[in-house]
Amino acid sequence: MLVLTHLIASVILAGILYPFIGVMSLWVIIGGVLIDGDHYLFSIMRLKSFSLKKSYWWHRKHGMTPDYERDILHIAHTVELFVVTAIVGLVWEPAFWVLQGMILHILMDFINLFKYNHVDARAISLVGWLKRRSLL
User: Fold this and answer.
1) What is the pTM of this model?
2) Is residue 63 a contact partner of residue 118, using CB atoms and an 8 Å limit?
């Protein structure tokens, strides 16, 4: 899904929350957008390139093709990071609101994955991914 789509959805959610939580709602936008930074990290390792443009186009093409790669690890999209963020959110309020943005983001991603029948394209657990590769 496009970063712009995630940005727009996060801004809408932050706007809905703003009357209740004020500027704390900006953390929702951060969580909803910056989670995709792991796509760039993946591209640096996979494509051996620091080009944002190459990263963007690789992920766009990958998301649309029927012969897509399965079980890609995007570390910020794993259940483990969500759990850590939730735990931190118990003691630091901004992390709670970051988590809300992350949840919105991942829901949108899964809708997109179902739409293209690519549900197995992304690893949802770091531990599971490591086990499948006999690294754990």
Assistant:
1) 0.93
2) yes
- Provide CB contacts within 8 A for 73, sequence distance 6+: 42, 122, 123, 126, 129
Query: In this model, does residue 68 exceed pLDDT 90?
Result: no
Nearest 5°: the CA angle 98, 108, 53 is 85
Q: Where are the domains of the chain?
A: 3-131
Q: What is the pLDDT of residues 26-53, one digit of tens each?
A: 999 999 999 999 999 999 999 999 999 9
Judge contact between 1 and 109, C-beta under 8 A: yes
The identity of residue 135, as a single letter, is: L
DSSP conformational letter for 122: B
Question: Distance (Å, rounded) from C-alpha 45 to C-alpha 65?
Answer: 21
Long-range contacts of 95-98 (CB under 8 A, 24+ apart): 95/27, 97/17, 97/21, 97/24, 97/25, 97/27, 97/28, 97/31, 98/27, 98/28, 98/30, 98/31
- Residue owning tokens 């770091």: 126
